Amino acid sequence: MKTIKSIKLALAASVVLAITACAPSAKQLKEAVEKDPSIVFTAIEKHPDKFIEVVMKAQQEAQKVAGERAQEEEKKQRDEEYANPLKPEIDETRVIFGNKAAPITIVEFSDFQCPYCSRGYQTMQQVRKEYGDKVRIVFKHLPLDFHPLAMPAAKYFEAIAQQSPEKAEKFHDMVFENQGMLKDKGEAYFADVTKKVGADLKKVQAALKDEKIQKRIDADMEEARKFNMSGTPGFIINGVSLRGAYPFPAFKEIIDKHLASAK
């Protein structure tokens, strides 16, 4: 408690110093505030705009430092993963977007209702356009609890895949491109999309109860936890992870490095 109080007093002293332009020593100012804490409140009341300015500046600086620190940690982690790649399970029988013999495999953990996953979808489209047959995407499921339509969507995707991987991919694209429809139509939208991609709706709805589908989704979720992916989207590019809806350049850096090392 004493340490917390000291920190608070020191912070208060710094604020007062910043907004009053006085020049006592830090020690003198701290002693003055300890004797009479009302000094702080008086200064804030007298210069509220300056107080807000100082607080906002401190917040921005703290965010900048935290961001730089996080980037350093992520870079360190990626360097370790280049040396010791993560090894997600690749089941060649499941839906794979792109050339199955591609030198670059991106394993994607996604949630059909997640707005950040919609961004991830757009980025993956850009990756496929840029790299063509050099990249394949293994789409895996990580439906989050607070997205009630994510699990039903994952089941529809896998049920359609039993009929046709190509139609499952079309379902995937259409749901992400029209994600706003989930608010309007809810789960009924998946039936609409199923018919639009040309899949047999009755067979799909019967397959939704297939235990194999639930087991596959559960296995994907367990694997995501194994790789410490608690949010969506998450990606593993030839063993190197990206956690979040990173922009295209982040993927390009990793892909280009893998392609260069393969030469």
List keywords for this structure.
263 residues; alpha+beta; Glutaredoxin; elongated
3D structure, described in words:
This protein is of the alpha+beta class. It has 2 domains: 2-83, no CATH class; 96-262, Glutaredoxin. The protein has helices at 2-20, 26-35, 38-46, 48-83, 115-131, 150-163, 165-177, 181-185, 188-196, 201-207, 211-226, 248-262, and strands at residues 96-98, 104-110, 135-141, 234-237, 240-243. A 5-stranded mixed β-sheet has the order 1-3-2-4-5. Strand 2, helix 5 and strand 3 form a beta-alpha-beta unit. Helix 1 crosses helix 2, helix 6 runs antiparallel to helix 7 (165-177) and helix 6 packs across helix 10. The longest helix has 36 residues, at 48-83. The radius of gyration is 26 Å and the shape is elongated.
N→C terminal distance: 60 Å
Number of separate domains: 2
Q: Taking all residues together, what is the mean pLDDT?
A: 87
% residues in beta strands = 5-15%
pLDDT below 50 for ≥5 consecutive residues: which ranges?
Answer: 6-10, 15-22
Question: Which fold name fills CATH's third level, the topology of the largest domain?
Answer: Glutaredoxin
Distinct helical segment count? 12
CATH architecture descriptor name of the largest domain:
3-Layer(aba) Sandwich
Give the H and E element order.
Answer: HHHHEEHEHHHHHHEEH
The neighbouring-strand order within the major sheet is: 1-3-2-4-5
In helices, the fraction of residues equals: 55-70%
Given the helix and strand composition, which structural class is it?
alpha+beta
The profile of the biggest β sheet is: 5 strands, mixed
The whole-angstrom Rg is 26 Å
- Shape, principal axes of CA atoms: elongated
CATH homology superfamily name of the largest domain = Glutaredoxin
